User: Fold these one by one.
Assistant:
Number 1:
Amino acid sequence: MIDAAEAQKVLEKAELFSGLSNDSIAAIAKLAKTKNYEEGDDVYKLGDAADAVFVVVSGRVRFSLGVGNRASTAQSIMEAGETFGWAALTGEAPRRVATASCLEDTTMLEISGSDLTGYFETDTASGYAVMRKLADRISRDLLSALTT
Amino acid sequence: MKVTVQSKSGIQEFSAETSDNLLYAGLKEGLSLPYECATGTCGTCRARVMEGDVSLAWNEAPGLAYVKRSKNEVLLCQAHTAGDCTLRVPAKVERMADGAPRPENFSGRIENVRRLTHDVMDFEVALDRPMSFHAGQFAAVTCQEVTGARAYSMVNHEDAPDRLKFVVKRKPGGGFSDWLFDRQVDGKPLKLFGPLGRATFRPEENKDFVCIAGGSGIAGMVSIATHAARIGYFDQHKGHVFFGVRTMEDCFYAAEFAEIARRASGNLEVTIALSNEDPPQDIHPEYPEIRLAGGFVHEVCSRAMAGRFGEIVGFVAGPPPMVDGALRMLIMEARLPADCIRYDKFG
């Protein structure tokens, strides 16, 4: 179990939340739940409802597409400090278009997408900053997909 | 040699010969070891060596990017052992129920090589004995002249055929495809391990199906449509095939699909999507059973199938960007559940 202070430190180092004020980070940390997975566990599978964002605290998570485990065009391994599952912040009733599975025992912070977007409604400056980073990331992924 | 597997569902054992990699040895004995490509690319058959001496056949296998060598992790499809060993596999590993064709080693010779386009060819392999397989499955193919195995889907489908047909698209720098395209390969011996893959056509599901394929990914779709036509599946169900190529000159298997469509009495719709040129007309100039459309194949499918997806099974195969686009479309637009989307690694 990760306490609120430790969760705050993890979020401060996460690229998606970097640059937010201490108060904003503290508020987001309160929304986070600790999740522990064993090596080989799936965090989510292709087609699952995309309802949460994850920040890796320790361990490694691999992304793959399809019924099997082909690597996706997105960065395919996530390590400590990296954020994934951001489809939970987009659109209505989003679904997962990849499978995320743990390459080793992994601890993560799980933040409900609706809780987080709800918080951003009250802290629009932070919401704008995060959504800009998200737009940059989607743009990078698209570019990567077009050039590989 | 005795191989012990510690898995999430308990301990299993199988025996292995020195010549077999550990994945093939376990699959031959009916264990549900995790794998996808079975040729060193995807990294799915990752395992940790707990005891014993295990060596890798191909130290540069791309799938090794997903393992930690410092933790004694290996890819089972590249791993060989000269003695007893114990492995830990981070998945459930069980003995599979009898019924599904178990993969085995086969040998055969290349025959009937045909050049289909400037960079696509197909050929048959006359096997040393018949191989039963499900439509959509593949085999790992090796030749003496090129290091490593390649995964190719079977194009044909019959009950236990003694010939397999494969289609290969030439890849820049691809050792196996260079060998096929540059040499006189008729009569050359091949070794095969198969059948492999779970992205199969299952007639007992009783659902319509849609196939979205690019390039040589069409192989498994021909097999599926052939099987469906042979068993009268189109009497009750519809099939939709969307085949993406760049231009009309890159198109192949139009005659084969036209023949299957005729046997399907209007219940198999085949559309060729041209991504790099406008189609000269809406119907194929030689085969009126086949439609033509412009655009990326998943976009063409999305337009043509709008409002018609319903209870359907989707098969996808092709180059990675095409597969990504097709999967997103099937999940986000067609709203297919994940268990109705079939895909095996290709390319």
Note: The domain at 104-196 of chain B is CATH 2.40.30.10 (Elongation Factor Tu (Ef-tu); domain 3).
Number 2:
Amino acid sequence: MSRRLADGHAPAHRPRIAGPPWRPLAIALPVALATPWMRGWLESSMSLHMLVQMPLLAAAGFAAAMALPARSREAIALCVGGALPCLLVASLASMFWMIPRALDLALSEPTLEAAKFVTLPLLVGAPLALAWPRLGMLGRGFVWTNFASMLAVLGWLYRASPLRACNAYPVSDQREAGEWLIFLAIATFVGWLATLFAAPSSRQRMR
Amino acid sequence: MAAQETTIDRGAHPAVLAYLCIAMLVLLLMMVFGALMRMEQAEFIAMGPMWFYELMTLHGAGMVGVAGIAGIAILWHFLGQYVRLSAPVFVANLVLFVAGVAMILAAVLGGNFHGGWTFLHPLPSKSMGTWSPNAAALFLGGMLVIGTGFLLLHLDIARAILAREGGFGRALGWPQLFGRAETAPPPPTIVAATMATIVNLIGIVAGAAILSMMLVNLYFPDFGVDALLAKNLIYFFGHVFINATIYMAVIAVYEILPRYTQRPWKANRVFLASWTASTVLVLFIYPHHLLMDFAMPKWMLVMGHVVGYLNTFPILVVTAYGGLMLVYRSGIRWDMASGLLFVSLFGWSAGVMPAFIDGTIPVNYVMHNTLWVPGHFHTYLLLGMMTMVFGFLYYIGKSAREMRERLVDRAAFAVFVVATLGFTLSFLSSGRSGAARRYAVHLPEWVPYDRIASVFAVLVVAAVAVFATRFLLRLPAASVDAPRATLAGSMT
Amino acid sequence: MQDTAWFISLTLMGLLLAVFVFVWSQSSVREEDFTPLQKRAYRLRARLFWALVLTLGPAMLYNLIDLPYAAADARERDAQVIDAVGHQWYWQLSRNEVRAGEPVLFRVTSADVNHGFGVYDTGSRLVAQTQAMPGYTNVLRHTFAQPGKYRVLCLEYCGLVHHNMIAEIDVVEARGAAKE
């Protein structure tokens, strides 16, 4: 069942992302995140809500898609039109959840909270997992660099905003979230660039 | 006599020629703008400040763009002989470049945007009504489009290099430099292409961030961008990008001079150390543009000063010296290609002299933003970087039939070198006298220098027009695989 | 200072020119065996490297003494203070008359875009400068040696009338008028 038991050779033209136990993760993550205790803790500050809970939800969707057999993944990806539509959907969905108002609504409206738990895995994490193997270095590099600069600009927006954008969180939370975003932007970019310096075997592992 | 194999030099891909044609046409137009600027300052013509500052904005942006596409075309041509590059991505960059140029032209000529090519925030947002936010957005958007094109192209270059070498560290020769690797280091072209790619990937992402922030600020002014942060990001991006063009163009020297002299340019330990050093130095030297921003952390300004001195070493001790070593007692056959490439090494190293001097803080105190600044960068960009490009043009346009240049070429060569030196020395001496840069109207005491400079400027334009014309006329020969180097010591 | 920069630049550029011309003049004869030539060249290069280190190093360090940035910490109660604000397109100075021979602290900022506060003496020489940046105050410390009419020119491109942002500072005789 585990990936580690599969024949350890990478397919000729598609690097297989080996390592993490996708199926257990795909189940454990959403269950853990949905518990009242986790929800309460992760939604207590803007930074935790936006930068920990939401990415973890997306990661759950990513893991779920990765848990599917490769052929199913390819079939679905072909169905939706390839890597580009997947990336578009993932970008739009994640952009929606970056809007402070969305964070507010998730906290005040149960339907939107449920939507968050469904759309982040399904419309962000899963499409990314479908698209990723189909992207070459160009596509991936473009995604990483744009993601990094987008995080930086978002972080600036949160820090520079003259208004309190979110009713649910104080302005100090907003500034803190902005600073974390900028830190993440730099870390993402440096991390990505560092993988290009490493020798091939370790780089493929990281991808 | 030792047997000289006549190796075939690869002809240029049509896309490379397209890049160079566009580069030369835009270059000539930008040079005319530049000459008009000097003539305005010399009071030979009277176009008025609005036109002056619009041409100034176009001249700066256009020249940086020209340097970018010409440099990367040279890189692509030679790197393609070692790795497999994607022609569609290469062409896509050119398309995005032209689109960006169109946006910039529309912003300036249509929207009267004249915020300078450095688009220093908050100037694009604060024009005193002389241009609209839409015009500024079109300009910044055009820069973003051009940056996106280069980002994609550099990603493809990175992919190709990594496919061959495995990692950037290997591509920079680190196993040979730091370890005891028995294998041969990568060829100089790969080392140079790797360095330019690494620094541009970082610079362009920084540029994309500040351009996006400024675009938001244009329409939502309540979202303020800290002026000092903006200046840091802008000058980091700008400095890295324009310097990368020289590090790309120098590949022509590394590839062509060895062909002419029949001596190899080896990527030995010193060479590799120098290029790794340059990778770091280019990223940390940018505070030398901010030495008069007293609000900066002092350590960063000292770093800019120090790195400016360190940066002279790779250029002088490795590249210039290496070229001199190859040429000395080589029996080299001097023609336009070899002559221009040889001169380009002088141009680059000579230009770096007033550069590190201006990067010395007490000097910068009285010379920052005087004409000394365009003085030094016109030296290493015109007599250095662009001369590498001109040398490449003559090399690639050579055919087996026409191995000797005509009188008009040699005359253009002489005029170009002398006039460029005269032109840049006029800038430097103006700066010495305190002439401020970016002034549409000069103080009376500065005007005599401008008049001399105008004469030289016109001569430079004429010489470059000859180079461009000759290249365009020889385009058919440029795509042919043929021996191009007149070999040293041979009888032909 | 400008003259020193000019002459040193010219000397270095001239040296480089001489070297290039020399190598060019020695290029017509071919020394077929490159290896011994290369060895000699590398030895010379090592000496060149150390020569550069020994000349540029001290120059670099020497020029780090007495940087213009310390003024921000200046506690000169008797200094003459001028608050300077750059606008598009004029300078707003809190005063425009100071005494020669005594330090002046310029507190420079901008109300809109980046400007450059460049102080020119009576002979049109640039003697001191700092940037005028919105949101920041840069402190420039300068002592006018001679009385006379000094000018402030804008040294950072700021738009259509960048070239005409000129202010005047009257520097009068020092108190007690003791001429040294």
Note: Chain C touches chain B through 79 residues (CB under 8 Å).
